[in-house]
Design a protein that fits this description.
With about 80 residues, this protein is mostly helical. It is built from five helices and no strands. Helix content is about 55%, strand content about 0%. The model has no long low-confidence stretch (mean pLDDT about 90).
Length: about 80
């Protein structure tokens, strides 16, 4: 997340959404990270995806963190629960 918070276009969009300079400093505040990053077990992540869809999103991008093998494993575990979405 720290990488994105060094890019002016991302920071400007976050400010437009109501986040403060303190929220985007030092890798992001807890409030910002909790709002932007779906974290936890598969159930928690599926719940967050559904929250976005229920709020009107027509698609949700999942960007797993870690190496390629780990990221693919995460997506494989999430796919069955999200396939009906």
């Amino acid at each position: 997340m720290d990488l994105y918070l060094k890019l002016p276009n991302y920071v400007n969009n976050l400010r437009h959404l109501g986040y403060t300079d303190e929220d985007v400093a030092s890798g992001g505040s807890d409030r910002l990270v909790d709002a932007v990053v779906a974290w936890g077990d598969e159930s928690a992540i599926v719940t967050r995806v559904h929250e976005h869809l229920d709020a009107g999103a027509d698609h949700v991008l999942l960007q797993p963190l870690g190496d390629l093998e780990g990221a693919l494993g995460q997506l494989e575990r999430l796919a069955p629960a999200l396939n009906d979405t």
